[in-house]
Amino acid sequence: MATFDIDIAYVEKLAELLQRTGLTEIEIGQGDARIRVVRQIQQSVDVHTVALPAPAPAAAPLPVAPTAEPQPAELNHPGLVTSPMVGTAYLAPEPGAAPFVTIGQEVREGATLLIIEAMKVMNSIRSPRSGRVTRIFVDNATPVEFGEPLMIVE
Known about the structure:
This protein is mostly beta strands. It folds into 2 domains: 8-38, no CATH class; 72-153, CATH 2.40.50.100. It has one helix at residues 8-21, and strands at 25-30, 33-38, 80-82, 87-90, 106-107, 112-118, 121-126, 131-136, 142-144, 149-153. The chain has a 4-stranded antiparallel sheet with strand order 3-10-8-5, with no helix packed on it. Strands 7-6-4-9 form a 4-stranded antiparallel sheet, with no helix packed on it. The protein has a two-stranded antiparallel ribbon with strand order 1-2. β6 and β7 (121-126) form a beta hairpin. The termini are far apart.
């Protein structure tokens, strides 16, 4: 087994990168040496029991469709949410499920807006602020690039 000196400052920078990008783990290797930093994500689930009336006839789906390409002014909007990584964006937690958010919906800071799958890891993209979702720029299950506009929360 090879031994090597650990640069604590480098490991701390990797941990900061995880926090800043929303990734859950990163592994770096050089020769026989490998450093793996993993961030634990605490998830809470609120369960509410509500008596539901009999199902109504199928209605039109909620507006979740993307609303065209971002305008130049929107790229500087303080509520613009961009992709922190390359991956596949999913607007709902699973196929056939209701989307995390829809246009016009009020959200709280930290609420999940969508998830991005990167290297078979599902990463929650959370709202940076409380407000109303006014634009969604991506379709469900579409590839996204780092820095690509995803939504606007006003």
